[in-house]
Each structure stands twice: as C-alpha cells, then as structure tokens.
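Marked as duplicate of an earlier ticket. Keeping the data here for the record.
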Amino acid sequence: MPLINLNKILISLQDYHPKYIDLNLNRIYRLLKDLGDPHLNLPPTIHVAGTNGKGSTIAFLKSILEYGGLKVHVYTSPHLVSFNERIRIKGQLITDEFLSELLLEVEKINNKKEITFFEFTTAAAFLAFSRVKADILLLEVGLGGRLDATNVVPNILASIITRISFDHEHFLGNTLSLITREKCGIIKKETPVITMHQGENINQIIKKTSIKLNAPLSIINKKDFILGKKRFSFKYNNKIIESPLPSLRGKHQHENSALALTCLNIVSQKLNKFNLSRSINGLKKVRWPARTQFLDSGKLIKLVYKKQRLIVLDGAHNTLGAKSLKEVLKEFSDNWLLIFGYLKTRKPQEFLEELRSISSEIITVKIPEQNESYSSKKLLKAAKMIGFSGYASTSIVDAFNKAEESNLCICICGSLYLAGKILSMNETVPN
C-alpha cells in the first residue's frame, strides 16, 4: 500500500478520538476483546515506565538481547519521523504494508467507537506482536503507567521504572508523589521491579507498592558506580556487575544501562538460549536517535557545518533532560549556540536555566506542524528574560542559515518533535 494511503489512515484515526480524554482502560479492553484478545498471546514482556530514560533503557535491552541471538519485538513512542518507528518486529521497523493491513483491520472492528489514537495503535501493535513469533517484547509506557493502554499485558517478566520527574501534570498530578504512584501502576504481583535510587519520597512509594504486591524490588544507586575509561561497574544485591561503557553518551546513560543489565540479570534464566555474559557487549552497539546524536552530514547540516565545530541533536524536553544534556555538552565545550523549540505544555525558562552555564546565545524556532509550539518570538522573549541573546527565526532553514554566522558548537534541543523534523529535513531518517 502506498505511503500516502498509510498516512491518510493514521490521520483518519483522529476522527474517533474522545472530545475529553479520561484516562481509563475500558476502551482498550473493549477493543482488544473485539479483536480476540491479542494481548493475551504476546511473548514474555519487559514493561518500562518513568519520565526520562525509557527509550534509552529499551534501546540497551534490545541491543543486548539481540546480540545474544534473541528475536525481539519493541513498542515505543513517540516516533521521530515515521510512525513505523514505534513498532519493531523482530528488530525491524514494521513495513508500511503490514501496518496498513493492521490499522484497517482494527478500524473495521472498532466500528467508529470512541478510542484515542494511542489506544488504537497500541491495539494494532499487540495484534502484530501476537501474529509474529518472537522471544521477548520490550514495551514502553506511553503516559503514566496505571491507566496507560500498555498496562493490560499479563505476561510480564519484569517492570522497570526509570527516573521520575514532572511531566504531563494535567493527567498524572502536580506532585512527584502523585506522579510516582501513577508510574507504580505497572508493578505486578510477585513480578520483579527494578529502579534507580531517586530520593526518599519516591523510593518509599515504590517500596510500599512493591511490598503490597510481593514484588521483589531492586534499587540501583549511582553512588556505587565505578567508572573507568572503557568499563564501569555497579552493585546489584551485593553483587558487582562489570560492564563495558555504553555507546550512548552521558552519565545518565550509565544509569539506564545499569537498569537494563540488572533486569536481564534477574530474568535471563527465564529466557531460552540467552547468555548474558556473552551478550553484554551489545551495550557498545546501541544507537538511539536524538539522544545526544552528533550530526556531521545531511541537507541541513551542510548549511552550518564547519571543521572543529560539533553539531548535536537532542530530544531533551524537561528540566531533568536539560541537566543530563548539559553534563554531556560541557565535556566538549563550555560555550554552545542553541537552536531551540519548545511546546506550551512546559515553561521554557526552567529548561533554559539548566543550560545557562554553557550557553548565552540562542536561535529560537517554532516547531512545524505543532499547534502547541511556542512561536519563535515568544521563546526569544522568554530566553532574554534570563540572560540569553539571540534571534527569532522564521523557519528551521532560517535558523540554520543564521547559525552559520556563528563559530560556536551547535545544540538543537527542546522537543522530540523538533528533533524528528530536523532528522526528516536533514534526510537522516532513523531506520
């Protein structure tokens, strides 16, 4: 089926979207039942929730498992360029043809009943995963956890909870305690839970939920990390785990890789023909676009590329992400030019404050095709209020042309939607 028809199908799904989104599992359960309950016929599943690091943790899990010879299904969101990125069938992006067939099938069964886009497409993904055999499924929560459409799968090997921060407060609550309780909704009875030490309040909520459900809990503390030039190690249940340094940059990625390794240490005995000690080098093979991604070629990059100048693309979009991004950037330079776009769901000053120590110049941009994007003028006004100087661009191309005038290293950040548009326009599409 031509790509244009697939895009039309995806756009048409908005017609069934409820006027008001109330988070519940009734719609997804109803649709799955009408489809023959494909969620009951999935491979053993690792479920991942959290605010930051979900995608990277899944990328580490995927790389290690595939390095060990396993067939891995993956479901993540959002996508950067193509919707197909959300559904990986045995390691490969779902084809346009297969995806179109599934969407049309689900649309027919749904019969114009109210359903959110994410619930609809999650049902289609479960249908795909149930029809193609694999050894394991890696499943990322879309929003929250307790009432997320992914939280209907019973065959869970382990639950991972990554770093928790403020995000989607209008759905999850305006305190970290409320947000944490929603994330803990993925914890299943007598099923292992793996998380990072991240403050006593958050830790206590995760501990109480785990005890209530008799779910074995492993908490990793980054204070126990020992970093070398090529390897790092950490404690898990008084056991030292030795690991190569992950290929993704940043100390926060040591946390995400430690979550993945701890999880696989716990569940590996339940995976046929998988040897973790022989598969651990998969950490060195991980690629995950828009996570401190260095760009040195492409249609847009040609406009600004100069020798000795680094160009980094990162999807960080909240303060926790900005802190992690800053730590990586300052390893290479103490003065960066930002190309910055942001959504109205958050305050841009809070994000930019984290980067002020390594940047004073900014080029703001409105994110194309995003109604919730700040205008470049409003973003520049917000940036100037906290000490930035800069330029409000009229387009992404205008932003890159303006950036060409500077000799500073460039970081493009603020939104995964902006990152996806950059990759598309640069013709460096994820595969």
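See parent ticket for discussion. The chain is about 35% helix and 15% strand.
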